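Q: Could you fold this chain for me?
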Amino acid sequence: LDGHLAAATTHLESRLPVNVAPKLPTEISASDALRVPVSANNTTDEARKTTLEVTKHDGLKLERTIAELELPARAARRVLLDLRPTIAEGTATLELQAEGDAVRHTLRVVPEGFPVTRSWGGLLEKSARHSVSLPGDVIPGSLKVRVDAYPSPLGELSRGLEGILREPSGCFEQTSSSNYPNVMTLSFLRGLNRSSPATESRARALLESGYKRLVSFECESPTRGKREGFDWFGGANPPHEGLTAYGLLQFHDMARVSSVEPELLARTRGFLLGRRDGTGGFLRHPQAKQSFGTTTPLIGNAYITWALSETGDDPLKAELAALTQATARDDDAYLLALVSLSLLNRDRKAEALPLLKRLAAQQNKDGALSAATSITSSGGVDLQVETTALATIAWLRADRAFTPAVEKAIRWLARQRQGSGHFGSTQATILALKAFLTHAERSPRTIKAGRLTVYHGTDVLGTATIPEGAEEPIALELTQPEQMLRVGATTELRVVMDPPSNVMPVTLSADYRVRKPDSAEKPLVGLKTTLEKAQVTEGDMVRLQVRVENRSGQDQGMVTAIVGLPAGLTIPTDMEQL
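A: Sure. Below is the predicted structure, expressed as structure tokens.
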């Protein structure tokens, strides 16, 4: 009325008259029977009849494929569809539609039972025999047998990346266990001028993520008003000398292939140097309670000295003098290896050679070295791997006179490699990979064209081609393994290399499923879960009790319990911090 232009706004909405929404799991077992709720929502203001139809059900068997529904205005109703998988393993597809709304869902079908992986490793020279023992309760159709050969350390590491690496997470030590193999892989690619774009790209992406997490654990000193040293969780916690030495080694290696703040390295070294006690040892914070670095003071001093000798030019005269004096009365192989490496890093080869000869004299016939303890208080095979790897690196850096000891050690280390790429604990894995990298740099080899063959008696179970100059892993999966490998018995397989001059690490792995979980006979940790009631009504809340028990009588380090939720249950949104 006042002459201005008028305006009007109207909201227009376009929607299907009926929306269809099935509720499906992401994975089911081959023997499962599902009752799937499918809801149909009437979006209109009028009551209507609709037909819900299953248009595709690959890999699934349904009791019915059509349902008629009466839908009140602006209301939803649902129908329950009973279905079973018709495949033992693979991907099943379900498609439904109603009045123009079509939905498609896929779900993975896995064999019933619990997954088990067994692996055997070694260095393949001409041929090798492996005895594969299978329990009597292997579920038919679930057995898979695979042979992986690693022509070069790059192949060794690339398979290791697949098995070891995860997106970095957890505390400082856990993040390091994911990050350190990336560092060594990139060092290998650059040092030997080898190109593997896919491996390098993936390693760099994970390395960047890992570095950001690692630096967040640097401790804040409330009294000195600065950052220094590392702890498992950082913050105001006191720095841990042993873990800081481990971090210093990692950051030093990382700086060769990626961007690392120079001030971080300087601060970390400065903290450790500042913890020297003036008598050749290092002070320890009394609150340090983690297993890393709480071993004997002598081993802790040797490890910290080695870390400083690897990462800087400080003469460390008092520390090396004290350690050298200690080796005169202590013949522990782990100690001898650390002190030898520190002496070699300070160009004191003449003093290191007698220690290295003592190490060689201790080497077992199989190539391994044993010790009393390590920086992580490890034991068993893990401790042997750590000790043997350190000795191997020292021998390689010292003199070719130790070549026989090196080759025996490398063969033994290769046999400790598990199918997933691990060599046991985090420290064992990292030190073993360091040994393989050092061996690759100082003892390069070229692979000739040939083939890898697996035999059962005189029967050929599979053959893989080896290209000239191969570097990437060579995988051979046996077809129909259940025809040759007997359940509940031991079967001997023979892996043959042609030509025999090709020598490389090989792992044989068997994956299968059993009806009961593969639990250790005497586990150190017990896990028990209990639902507070056996029957619940849809929409109810039910409490799941989880009990983790230390049965060993000794303190245990970081323990992670992985608890699967029973089918049909979800964690409430207000409890997602779990």
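A (continued): The longest helix spans residues 172-191.
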